[in-house]
Amino acid sequence: xxxxxxWPAADDRSLIGKRHTRVDGxxxxxxxxxxxYDRNLDGMLYARLVISTxxxxxxxxxxxxxxxxxxxxxGHVNIVNVGDEVQWVGSEILxxxxxxxxxxxxxxxxxxxxxxxxxxxxxxxxxxxxxxxxRVQPAKDDTKGPEMAEAWASADETIEGYYGLGIIxxxxxxxxxxxxxxxxxxxxVYASTQAVARIPADLARGLSRDESIGDVSADAVHVxxxxxxxGFGSKFNIDTWGVACAKLSKLTGKPVKLMLDRDEExxxxxxxxxDYGNIKVxxxxxxxxxxxxxxxxxxxxxxxxxxxxxxxxxNNEERLAQRARHLNVSTNIGPARAWRAPNHPQAAVLxxxxxxxxxxxxxMNPVDFFKKNADLTARPxxxxxxxxxxxxxxxxxxxWHQRGDSGSGPVKRGLGMSLHTWGGRPHDSTCEVxxxxxxxxxxxLASQDLGVGTYTTLSVVAAETLGLQIPDITVNxxxxxxxxxxxxxxxxxxxGTTASTRRATVNALEELKAVVAEALEVGAADLVAKEGxxxxxxxxxxxxSWGDACRKLGTRTITGQGKQPDREGGKLNDSxxxxxxxxxxxxxxxxxxxxxxKLAAVQDVGLVVCLAQCESQVYGSLIQGIAYALYEESVYDxxxxxxxxxxxxxxxxxxxxxxxxxxxxxxxxKYDDRGVIGIGEPPVISPGAAISNxxxxxxxxxxxxxxxxxxxxxxxxxxx
Amino acid sequence: MKNFEYIAPTDTLVATQALSAEPGVTTVLAGxxxxxxxxxxxxxxxxxxxxxxxxxxLRGISKSGGGLRIGAMATVDELLASKAAAPYRSLQxxxxxxxxxxxxxxxxxxGDLLQRPRCWYFRNGYGLLAMQDGESLVPNGENRYHAILxxxxxxxxxxxxxxxxxxxxLGATATVAGPEGERRVSVADLxxxxxxxxxxxxxxxxxxxxxxxxxxxxxxxxxxTYEVRQRQLxxxxxxxxxxxxxxxxxxxxxxxxxxxxxxxxxxRSSEAxxxxxxxxxxxxxxxxxxxxxxxxxxxxxxNKAKVQLAAVAVKRAVAMAA
Lengths: 720, 322
Fold this sequence. Notes:
The complex is a heterodimer of chains A (720) and B (322).
Chain A: H1 25-29, E1 45-51, E2 57-63, H2 65-68, E3 73-78, E4 85-86, E5 92-98, H3 101-109, E6 112-117, H4 127-132, E7 136-144, H5 148-154, E8 157-165, E9 177-182, E10 187-191, H6 199-208, E11 221-223, H7 239-252, E12 256-259, H8 262-268, E13 275-283, E14 289-298, E15 321-329, H9 344-361, H10 366-372, H11 380-394, H12 396-399, E16 411-422, E17 429-435, E18 441-444, H13 454-466, E19 473-476, H14 493-520, E20 527-530, E21 533-536, E22 543-545, H15 546-551, E23 558-564, E24 577-588, E25 593-604, H16 611-631, E26 661-667, H17 687-699, E27 705-706, H18 710-719
Parallel strand pairs in A: 1-12, 8-27, 10-11, 14-15, 18-19, 25-26
Antiparallel strand pairs in A: 1-5, 2-4, 2-6, 3-5, 7-15, 8-13, 9-10, 9-12, 13-14, 16-24, 17-18, 17-23, 20-21, 21-22, 24-25
Helix pairs in contact in A: 9-17, 13-14, 16-17
Chain B: E1 5-7, H1 12-17, E2 26-29, H2 35-40, E3 48-51, E4 61-64, E5 67-71, H3 76-81, H4 89-96, H5 101-106, H6 109-114, H7 120-126, E6 131-132, E7 135-136, H8 164-169, E8 173-178, E9 181-186, H9 187-190, E10 209-215, E11 222-228, E12 239-248, E13 251-260, E14 267-268, H10 270-276, H11 283-293, H12 305-321
């Protein structure tokens, strides 16, 4: 029996699950959508960071005397002080502001910071060398499942190999930063953030650490972020530059803009940990997996970081003997931040690549091998279904061949696959829906749209609930003064915000129905809102248009509240999804250049709210996946400790011509009863492993580490 | 960015007189696709920038005698659209390799020749020779994109020019204007491997301007350029080769093979040319020429792959020319 908040049944949905164009698309396409970077306030000053030029050192002097004489200089605040240590190139030292951006740059360049150099280390792949430099710490050694020695003894075939992937950054197109306007009334922060509701307390805390500022109330802070240009997990906090920007605004009495430069963005504001490892996997002749052992290491800066969940997806603790050891490598590079599906893309490479190598050794088709072992996963039925569907989309049965394309000519073609999982548990969210006497409907909550479709999905939910159309709904998000909603991380937003919005809208509608029931002289329970009308089910002639119904409110505005989590009256969301991806690649074995012919993705997310936005998340993930599979890597120089490619020239991303064909299939009408589950993370997990597997299938040998650049591909061919 | 004086004279002589004979004091602005970022990053810090945009005599691409004249302000797009340039297939291929519409629209052919190296140590402020404490950072550092030929040091960067190899293979010359008048120099001799930190990667004096490039007729020559590039998006090639060959009786009688992105200058390979001599243009001849081109290569710690990529570039350029 459906309860009142449940999502409408499949045949009762007019908007949910269908394709809708992005409601914020026109504003973005016309350039009228204001991002934080676009905010230019009257009298605004420009701030720049002064950053560390050494990878490790103690600050022995900060001389701003020349900088203070630069024309237009307005002030500076220290982020660290003399005596403090810096641990990476790009580490924030102070922020300085001036009347123009050019003067601010001149002033920043005129600051002299003196360091006492300390030993540094920036390399991680060669774990032996890192160990010799005293940079390696044991982090984990977990053994689970059946007895290890017995499991190995039962294996008919084993493979041992080395796999890995280097450090990449988030490379947000809108860099980190904000404009802060500190007035007597309020501290207004136009922040590029994934956490509108969280930033006020974060900033207040940061400011209160400075005795000269004193206590600042989080309620004095107003964060405004209607649009933002990419976060991917790197924009949850106010960061040192946000606190410094606010202090400069207080100091000067003017609004101050501080957005990072591209090089700063790549050096210090992003970073996904590397992961390398020696992996051993064993199976019986029929392909049944029996044992998996990994010894991995990674770095994400001075604190290490990056411990992948291994073995990945195929991890049944009753039936698979498994041991996962991990080492932390400490390096003097910008610290890692959560990168879309933290640790999972690495785990996929370190699991799905060795598994495909084992399948090849067993002369098994990977589709059969991965399906055969699906019982070792948490959702065997889902994966079996998705593998079959994805195989159909990529033409697996027609195109797949045993390892090594035997065709003539230098261009070899191959197929590869990978599986992934993600939680996507909804975050907490509160929503207020207003119905105005003029028929207007607004959805209000302090969420944010990272470019993922939040405006659209919430419009769909409210419109569906009220029997209206998407343009009838106004979505107000991106302000911390609205009801609190969670940060957008971990694929938690769509599940959290659609639930609170659904509940708030249903509650608001109930109030309206009570008014309409009186006017039509029917029972409120008899009323439905559909196709722009509210009418009695028992007698459809008893009906009011939406506008007429709202006019009955007179001068009153209805507000409906909704909260997530809320166990009352319906199940609206869930967590835990599966996905399968397959890649079709061509490899020129003379040049080592890999091109993508096609990527196919099948993804389960429970109930799809807006099919177009959901697919769009997967398309974006596949492109981001191609980027880290083939192109992206942060290159660090040991002698200088510097990242050599903090730019978009040698920090390579794919362009439209490098992407190939992408085909996405969202699983619908199968797991809808589970409710809404997040989509942001899961589809970015598999591309690296699937593409690496396809390359191995094409050329007959494994290229051990990503990105699959020409030099790595040629080296693998030569070593074969 | 350091402030500078900006002038845009209408006359070449005035422009050269506005340039200092001292290195690093003044600089020339054409399309600006390279210079502007160098100025912003503080890698170039001139006190005066002399723009060539108002000098009408430096514009255009046209037939000249039997050959082709490319003015200093002619853009990559103009080259691609020029009927006069259409027979020069190796130049066309090099132009198509610059895959950014923005760069093609404002970037000039001469600017491509004279752009500074893309070496990431240079671009990160360690100087053209990437020196730290009297030693080059390159041989033991991150050298995957660095030189495999002509790399005995102290220079390890590669010439980034897209058109250099093609123009050298076509026997093009440059007209160079200075305060004392004009001189002509082969495009090959425009490039130089610096022997010390006081030298640059071109043979131009600081107060000289390349006013035009003259390319001899390509009639009777088969020409091509092949670039090994990882991306379709604007991307520096990993290795390129331009060839120009003439045949007599189905056999190669003249061959010019010039590699790009493998050495501090466009790298003319007499070994590859010798290998082609007297052969018929087929797969085998190209493969042998490719092998010969890299026989003397001395890869650094991380750029061994470039040896093969350079050989493949030659092989494929020969195949395209055939």
